[in-house]
Specification:
heterodimer; A: 626 residues; alpha/beta; Rossmann fold; GMP Synthetase, Chain A, domain 3; 5-stranded mixed beta sheet; 21 helices; 39% helix; B: 438 residues; mainly alpha; 3 domains; 3-stranded parallel beta sheet; two-stranded antiparallel sheet; globular
């Protein structure tokens, strides 16, 4: 093992306010031969060292200056996670531009909206698919876009759009500019100020059009200092560092992946590994065996469902062992949950036995054999899921934060875990979080609070209280005066006709722990009783149907089968048993189509757009109250 | 960094490594060290349950090694290229006789004249002699491979013309041509029944008296360690096997190897895809015969005296058995098959001997011995005869072995076409997938 450098000291005063770009430069100066990123290409993980990475960032930054990107100009990036994403992001910050990330799944209409809303000057696209979303429309649709840089030339090379520029040519341009103006980028970096907006993070917009949250260098610095560099987060208090590896697979335009990938990279030198695609995450995880792993609840649920299903399909002997050790894992998990995530001597012994026979194998197959810190956030997760993963020995911590406060809010800290809560405020912002006594809303006030929405002062004003606290829109309550439990989004709280306040996400998450259920939406605001729209998990239910010798054709056909309805009905009953009578689901309907981002039913982060779903399936909903 | 991440491939070298993990590298080293120690000192390993590495067994192990080299060759032709051949014994014979003609008759003058066929009629030599040039091993060993390979190339056009069963018949013909030549040319082959002497494995620079490295006598090697003749022969031949193994393994994963496999899977399709059928069938035959030639030369030299009759059809069938039981097309399977086929008869025989010793002892073992063995007396029953070697019921151990192989080949062909290697794959995948099935 090569010696790894410690985190380099922050840049000295003369070189401008520290930004993510200057942090990257510091790494390249102090440890040029250290590994920064890995990217898989044609079956081989290619490694990028800090020295080379910074050279490329510099060339890209010079290229941006050559293209006329000035202080405060927007550079948009529309690509899957890849090294060019990070390089362009850091290069943009280096020239004091503003990075705007877009979800790879964004349809053309949303691309048009976002590009024009932020007024991007340079637009980076990954390939023909993303380029077409811009160049197929008349140039006058995008008055501000001057250059479209593409990374993969296949299918674009012959296009004659004058705005197009190949990535390699862009870097060559940068190299030439660098030869002529050696210090242009360094100069820009030296002028960086703490109030510079460094990125616009577009909120996914469960209601209304997406809004671009402006995050400044100050926000980013505070975010890195508080989230990445809180040693209490980790077992043994060991901060993330160059010996740690992470898999980058969630969209980088989302604040969570940005914090745990780009900022962990420039902040602490965590080695980033770019997954080939979201479909290959499982295989990539097994190859990389990361030490730090962040996932949204949907991923955790899928991992758990994968284990359950594959376990059920294995041979009788294996199944027997599996059943036995899953029980053991359940017991260990419950014990750890009761002990704030800590081990007892008894669970340690039980775990050691389980490790030999089962847990090591399962963790290896999940790609989590070396995970020392795992996080979940961005949406509520069912405690049962966390319990299981804690049972197979993972340290999973639920975190809470949002785009508007740069994801700085609460986290479960090592040894003080309370499952079911989102943890306690980070030690650095003890007094920066409060719960409004009247509305129960969680509010934050600290250096990572964003400065406003891009071009929407009215919306910005709505987001802050009169005394400057950020309104998160989440209802929360204190648990034991230390931890915070998020009840639900304020807008989602259901008040039944009987006047009872009910949080639908808790019920929905319990429903979603069933491997057969993909998505669930509880309805009942101002109604007599609760009902639910449920989307089945096509693969799992399909396999189940096959095992029952039940022929089916399409998703719709499958979800209309009486046997399937009976199957889901059983799952719903199981959920009902866990809740009070008023919180029981009286009726449910299966959604006859797969929910999709492009049809407007899900956001880019796969969150349900409740109003659109309710609208699209009004007849189903009304049918349940007839 | 890659340590503990066995699936992380950072270069094509890593991706194509024969032993990708440190565990596998360590296992190989451990195996080699253990084998060396076991061969070296019976003294160290008295606690081993069987006298597997005593000198009684070592000769057999050397033979197994030699057969392993030949089987590797046949695997390249049958398993990798998919050309059925029953002529492997012929190619082994070619190598063996090339060796004896180039390296035999050390120290005798004029014996080259016997190498010209029909020299009597040409008036070259008065009395009958045996052909041999007395050349050193570094000439005759490679040459025996090369000559066999050349003959293989000459035969290979037949494989383009005929396929499957017909090719088997054509190559079968080679064996009989070989036997006939052996009978026709006593100056080359020696007496048809009793054979002739082969050159020793001593390594000489040229024809000098004291060899550079002494193999054929017990004694100190390099003034360091005392070894018996068989031990020395083992180390030399095992080293050759390792080289051949390494080459075969690399061949299979090279461009040539992939071309050969394409031809195996469907020669017409391969040709359509741009893999020249004739060229690669020729290559397959050449490489396969090269291996056979080397093995034949070593076989002759190690045994010391061989007659043409030994390179008959039975030997060819032995190799087919090795491939089918071990697993055609895989290097590891070939090695497993060789070990199994060559050592099983000895194991069965030793077991019978041991059982015979227990005949008069009481207890369950004596009972079992009584039940299994028969000495041919009145009222003595049991399937295994220890009194007679002739066929008939009860059968002797020798015939039982033949039956066992026949049954095994049938069983493997029906239930496990990948042979012992397939069994290993199944076991490995069972644990690899643990606790899942896929």
């Amino acid at each position: 093992m090569t010696a790894v450098a410690e985190r380099p000291a922050s840049s000295n005063a003369g070189s401008g306010y520290p930004t993510v770009a200057s942090r990257a430069r510091d790494w390249a100066m102090s440890a040029p031969t250290q590994l920064a990123m890995r990217e898989k290409h044609l079956g081989i993980w290619h490694e990028h060292l800090w020295g080379d990475t910074w050279t490329t960032i510099l060339e890209a930054a010079h290229g941006l200056i050559a293209l006329g990107v000035d202080v405060g100009d927007r550079v948009s990036i529309h690509a899957e996670d890849r090294t060019e994403w990070v390089i362009m992001d850091l290069a943009t910050v280096a020239v004091r531009g503003i990075t705007v990330g877009m979800y790879p799944t964004n349809p053309a209409a949303e691309v048009e909206y976002t590009l024009n809303d932020c007024g991007a000057k340079v637009h980076l696209v990954e390939d023909q698919e993303q380029a077409d979303k811009v160049i197929e429309l008349p140039a006058s649709t995008f008055p501000t876009v001057e250059k479209i840089i593409y990374v993969e030339p296949r299918g674009i090379r012959r296009s004659e759009d004058p705005r197009l520029l190949f990535w390699d040519d862009f870097l060559t341009l940068g190299r030439e500019h660098r030869a002529a103006n050696a210090n242009a980028v360094e100069q820009r970096m030296a002028e960086a100020e703490e109030s510079d907006v460094m990125t616009l993070v577009y909120t996914s917009g469960t209601t209304g059009p997406p809004k671009g949250a402006m995050l400044t260098n100050k926000n980013a610095n505070f975010g890195i200092d508080v989230i990445i560099q809180t040693p209490e987060r980790m077992a043994g208090g060991k901060l993330p560092g160059p010996q740690d590896t992470a898999l980058t697979y969630l969209p980088l335009c989302h604040i969570a992946e940005r914090v745990f990938s780009t900022w962990a990279l420039v902040g602490n030198g965590v080695v980033l590994n770019f997954a080939e695609s979201i479909e290959s995450v499982n295989a990539n995880l097994r190859e990389i065996q990361p030490t730090l792993f962040f996932a949204v609840p949907r991923i955790w649920e899928k991992l758990l469902a994968g284990i359950t299903i594959r376990g059920a399909a294995s041979s009788p002997i294996k199944k027997g062992f599996m059943g036995m050790f899953m029980k053991l894992a359940g017991w260990i998990g419950r014990s750890r949950v009761q002990n704030n995530g800590n081990w007892t001597p008894l669970t340690r012994v039980a775990y050691a036995i389980g490790w030999v026979f089962m847990f090591r194998a399962i963790r290896e197959k999940l790609g989590m054999n070396r995970v020392r810190w795992a996080g979940t956030g961005a949406a509520p997760i069912a405690p049962e899921v966390l319990e299981f993963f804690m049972g197979i020995g993972l340290n999973v911590y639920e975190l809470y934060g949002m785009t508007e406060n740069t994801a700085v809010a609460t986290a479960n800290l090592h040894g003080r875990v309370k499952v079911g809560t989102v943890g306690e405020p980070y030690p650095a912002i003890k007094d920066g979080i409060r719960i409004d006594a009247e509305t129960g809303e969680i509010q934050t006030k600290h250096d990572a609070n964003f400065i406003g929405y891009w071009g929407k002062p009215d919306k910005t004003a709505e987001t802050f209280t009169e005394d400057g606290w950020l309104k998160t829109g989440d209802v929360g309550e204190w648990v034991d005066d230390t931890h915070i439990k998020v009840v639900d989004r304020i807008k989602h709280i259901i008040i039944t006709a009987g006047g009872k306040n009910i949080s639908p996400s808790e019920i929905e998450n319990t429903l979603k722990t069933s491997p057969f259920i993909n998505e669930a939406m509880v309805i009942g605001d101002r109604r007599k009783y609760l009902t639910a729209l449920i989307a089945i998990e096509a693969d799992v239910v399909g396999n189940w149907a096959l095992s029952q010798n039940m022929p089916f054709t399409t998703y719709r056909d499958l979800s209309e089968k009486e046997e399937v309805i009976a199957l889901i009905s059983k799952e719903v009953e199981k959920t009902n048993e866990k809740f009070a009578r008023v919180e029981g689901i009286k009726k449910f309907r299966l959604i006859p189509k797969e929910l999709d981002h492009e049809d407007g039913e899900l956001t880019a982060t796969q969150k349900l757009k409740r109003s659109s779903v309710e609208e699209a399936f009004t007849d189903l909903v009304e049918d349940m109250y007839r | 960094m890659a340590f503990g991440r066995p699936l992380l491939r950072r270069s094509y070298q890593e991706d194509a490594a024969i032993l990708p993990t440190w565990f596998q590298k360590g296992s190989l080293v451990f195996f080699l060290v253990t084998l060396t120690l076991a061969v070296l000192g019976n003294g160290f390993f008295e606690w081993l349950p069987i006298r597997l590495f005593g000198n009684t067994w070592l000769g057999l192990i050397v033979l197994t090694t030699i057969f392993g080299i030949a089987a590797l060759g046949l695997n390249i032709l049958v398993g990798v290229t998919g050309q059925v051949s029953l002529g492997h014994a012929f190619f082994m014979g070619t190598g063996a006789y090339t060796a004896v003609m180039l390296g035999g008759n050390v120290g005798k003058e004029e014996s080259w004249k016997a190498c010209v066929p029909f020299h009597d009629n040409l008036g070259l030599l008065e009395s009958q002699g045996e052909c041999g040039l007395g050349l050193p091993i570094w000439i005759w060993l490679p040459m025996s491979g090369v000559v066999a390979a050349l003959i293989g190339i000459i035969v290979s056009p037949a494989a383009v013309k005929v396929r499957g069963l017909y090719l088997a018949i054509v190559t079968l013909g080679l064996v009989f041509i070989g036997l006939h030549l052996g009978r026709m040319l006593p100056e080359w082959a020696g007496d048809f029944e009793s054979g002739r002497k082969w050159p020793k494995l001593d390594i000489r620079l040229w024809k000098e008296e004291t060899p550079l490295i002494e193999i054929s006598e017990d004694g100190k090697w390099f003034g360091l360690i005392h070894l018996t003749e068989v031990q020395k022969e083992f180390f030399l031949i095992f080293a050759i096997l390792l080289v051949m193994l390494w080459f075969a393994k690399n061949l299979v994963r090279s461009r040539t190897g992939r071309a050969l496999q394409a031809i195996r899977d469907r020669d017409v399709a391969a040709e359509v895809m741009g893999v020249p059928e004739f060229k690669y069938k020729r290559t397959g035959f050449a490489i396969s015969s090269f291996y056979a030639g080397i093995a034949g030369a070593l076989f002759g030299a190690f045994t010391g005296r061989v007659s043409p009759i030994q390179f008959g059809l039975l030997l060819s069938v032995d190799f087919i058995a090795i491939l089918l039981i071990g697993g055609a097309g895989t290097i590891a399977g070939t090695m497993l098959g060789t070990l199994f086929v060559e050592l099983l008869p000895e194991v069965v025989e030793s077991f019978t001997d041991w059982l015979a010793g227990q005949l008069d002892s009481g207890g369950p073992i004596g009972l079992m011995a009584n039940f299994l063995l028969t000495e041919g007396g009145e009222g003595d029953f049991g399937p295994i005869s220890i009194a007679t070697v002739a066929p008939g019921w009860p059968m002797s151990v020798f015939f039982w072995n033949l039956v066992i192989f026949g049954v095994l080949i049938v069983v493997f062909l029906i239930f496990e076409p990948l042979g012992l290697f397939g069994v290993w794959l199944k076991v490995r995948n069972y644990w690899k997938g643990w606790p899942f099935s896929y």
